[in-house]
Write a structure and sequence with these properties.
Layout lengths: L11 H8 L7 H29 L1 E5 L14 E5 L2 H4 L8 E4 L8 E8 L3 E5 L2 E4 L2 E2 L13 E5 L4 E5 L9 H4 L2 E2 L3 E10 L5 E2 L2
Antiparallel strand pairs: 1-2, 2-11, 3-4, 3-11, 4-9, 5-6, 5-8, 6-7, 9-10, 11-12
Length: 198
C-alpha cells in the first residue's frame, strides 16, 4: 500500500528563496545608514540647544569676588533672557549680566538705580534721590564714592555686592540697557549653595 505524504509541496518561489543565499550588504552601507540616523537626531538637538542658549537661558560661571556674599567664585548660575525682551526692563535688585566694550568677559552685577534717579555712593552707602537706600541683601561696604548724578534714560546703575572689590558703575558709569544680556535667576552649583536670586 502506498503511503500518502501530507507534507505540502513548495511553490517554485519558495524553492528559489531557499536556494538563494542571504545577500551581505557592504559595511559602508550600514555606516551610511547609521550616520544618516545620527545626523537626523543630532542636528535638530544642536539647533534647539543653540536657540535656547541664544534666546531663552544659559548657564554661566561666576568669575571673581565682586558679588560676594551673594555669589562666590566658580558658582554656576542660570541666567534667563526672556523677561527683559518680552515683559519689562531691569528692576532694582535684579542681578544681571553685562556685555560691555573693553571687558574680556561678561560681568555680573546688581541693579541699584534706574533711569531718571539721582544716585550717589558715599562712605559705602547708596543714596537714591537723596535718601539712604536700604538694601535687602547683605553687602560688603567699601570702594570709591560716586556722584551724585542722574541716571540717563535707557540706562541703569549697577554695583557689585562686594563694594570694596567690584568694578562697576562707579568705574564705567551707568550701563545702557541694551548692554544687559540676561537676569540671573538661580545658583545651581555647588549643590549646598543652590538658591533663587529673585
Amino acid at each position: 500500500m502506498d503511503e500518502i505524504n501530507n507534507v505540502p509541496s513548495k511553490t517554485p518561489q519558495q524553492e528559489l528563496s531557499e536556494e538563494r543565499p542571504a545577500v551581505q550588504r557592504p559595511i559602508w552601507h550600514t555606516l551610511k545608514r547609521m550616520l544618516r540616523e545620527g545626523l537626523t537626531t543630532l542636528v535638530p538637538a544642536a539647533v534647539i540647544t543653540l536657540a535656547i542658549n541664544a534666546f531663552v537661558a544659559q548657564a554661566m560661571v561666576v568669575e571673581g569676588p565682586s558679588m560676594q556674599p551673594s555669589l562666590y567664585l566658580n558658582e554656576r548660575v542660570i541666567v534667563e533672557k526672556v523677561t527683559y525682551r518680552l515683559e519689562h526692563g531691569p528692576q532694582r535688585w535684579d542681578v544681571v549680566t553685562l556685555d560691555l566694550p573693553g571687558e574680556e568677559e561678561e560681568l555680573i552685577k546688581r541693579v541699584v538705580a534706574l533711569a531718571g534717579e539721582t544716585v550717589e555712593v558715599r562712605d559705602g552707602q547708596v543714596y537714591i534721590n537723596g535718601q539712604l537706600l536700604v538694601e535687602p541683601q547683605p553687602t560688603r561696604p567699601g570702594g570709591p564714592d560716586y556722584g551724585p548724578m542722574v541716571v540717563p534714560a535707557e540706562h541703569v546703575f549697577v554695583l557689585g555686592d562686594n563694594r570694596a572689590n567690584s568694578r562697576d558703575s562707579r568705574y564705567f558709569g551707568p550701563v545702557p540697557i541694551k548692554r544687559i544680556m540676561a537676569r540671573a535667576v538661580l545658583v545651581y552649583w555647588p549643590l549646598d549653595r543652590v538658591k533663587a536670586l529673585w
